[in-house]
Specification:
By secondary structure, the chain is an alpha/beta fold. It is about 25% helix and about 10% strand.
Amino acid sequence: THVARAVACCVRPAAKRLLDEFFNKEARRFKVGLDLGCVEGPAAVAAESWRSPPRADLSDSKWGLESSLPLMLSRSPWYAGAAVGGVDRANATLVVYRARAHERSGLTRCRLAVDRGGARTGLWFVAATDRGRCCDGGQLRDPGLLRHHFLVVSGERPKGEWLFREHGGTAHAWRAPATRATAPRVRCFDPERDVALPPSSFRRERGDARTAAAAAKRASNATRR
């Protein structure tokens, strides 16, 4: 298929074989549903229309993933539908929520809205922040998020030291010096469960040279963390 051919240059041989097998056999039957529990229903964290997000969000070279991915899925042959609580016939479920547009605690409240009893596993969350399920300093936002998958714009090397930042009086955690003396050994990005999508892989160039350059810069920097 055109999808498998498009990524053939960018994946390892073992991954390519799995992709070929999936698209040749399973793709026609594979369905992705959208869980609207965070934006609709009684436990909604932020009542907003996922079908008409702000234009600025869709065109953003980094945060656009949170708004554009649900729309792209809803127009794809893999779409199974959208509902509060998810869709029963879906093979995978994406939680609709724009994490960047709300306070940091919102992601935990969103997880509780769709998985309050902790009985669900394997939901997909989109968090275009650099650290996914963690704060910028590497602090895990919510242990319950470890049961689920994350789509982020910056992954982490599968091997290497944990990066952890103590605020230490700085205004922003990402400006604080890195320390590993107090770091809990919990990965913010798990390559076995999560997927990194650099901006250039989900965003089309729209003729804006500055926006395209910003997307390319973020893509080249995607593995720095």
